[in-house]
Write a structure and sequence with these properties.
By secondary structure, the protein is an alpha/beta fold. The protein has one domain: Aldolase class I (TIM Barrel), CATH 3.20.20. The chain is 41% helix and 29% strand. It has an eight-stranded parallel barrel with strand order 1-4-5-6-7-10-11-12, surrounded by eight helices. The longest helix is centred in the N-terminal third of the chain and has 14 residues. The model has no long low-confidence stretch (mean pLDDT 90).
């Protein structure tokens, strides 16, 4: 299992939202400084979300420069999500040097796009399944799609995807624990491996996720718990290396 510290970007600042609400955000300053802290703590990967693009569908050149600086300065392997809604968007980010792109909105609204991205880019693209209850949310979590999470996951598996990112929006930014049960159900129902996002906040959460590794949980994205100091990344990584002991 792999841990992904997370940085969400709005207007060049590292922020966290509560349940995806743009009106309930906390700023944590310079994203490069945050990334440095994660790298120093031993992280190898970083999950970045361009919230500006998630909301308006357009990635700015300044955001590209920020992500490029993070990769150059820290050596972290970066996956990027938020507003990636065309083949050109994917290509541009891969040319910047990111490891993989997270698609969501257009994949849910136009499944053929998800199929084409898998065929074109393979494992350099992963789909984010953002859940409001059992429904898939889109457009920066502001709208609901017609998909249930399990139906969408099964369709992705048919397309050739073997891993997804599952976010329980009700847990995001709440520090109330990850929805492990729903993540395991999704993995079992679809055949997809699942990177869990939303609510991971304690070492117990990390250990519980690690216990689910044999049942399809392959990673955890952690944001607010690290930024707020509630969870020590070094300790979490050590637990991972020790098998949760």
């Amino acid at each position: 299992m792999r841990l992904y510290p997370a940085i969400d970007l709005i207007e060049g600042q590292a922020v966290r939202l509560v349940k995806g609400d743009f009106e309930r955000q906390t700023s944590y300053g310079d994203p490069l400084e945050v990334a440095h802290k994660y790298a120093t703590a031993g992280a190898t990967h970083l999950h970045v979300v361009d919230l500006d693009a998630a909301k308006n569908g357009q990635t700015s050149a300044s955001t590209e420069r920020i992500v490029a600086r993070i990769m150059t300065a820290t050596g972290l392997t970066v996956e990027i999500g938020g507003g990636i809604r065309s083949e050109g968007d994917v290509s541009r980010w891969l040319n910047v040097g990111v490891w993989r792109c997270v698609i969501g909105t257009r994949a849910a609204e136009e499944p053929e796009f998800a199929r084409r991205m898998r065929e074109t880019f393979g494992d350099a693209v992963i789909v984010g399944i953002d859940a409001k209850g059992d429904r898939v949310a889109t457009r920066g979590w502001l709208e609901d799609s017609s998909w249930t999470t399990e139906e969408f996951a099964k369709e992705l598996y048919k397309m050739g995807y073997r891993e997804c990112i599952y976010t329980d929006i009700s847990r995001d930014g709440m520090l109330q624990g990850a929805n492990i049960a729903a993540s395991l159900r999704l993995a079992s129902a679809s055949g997809l491996n699942v990177v869990v996002s939303g609510g991971v906040s304690t070492l117990d959460d990390v250990q519980a996720l690690l216990a689910g590794a044999s049942q399809g949980i392959t990673g955890a994205i952690i944001g607010k718990a690290l930024l707020s100091g509630r969870l020590d990344l070094r300790v979490a990584l050590a637990a991972l290396q020790g098998g949760g002991k």
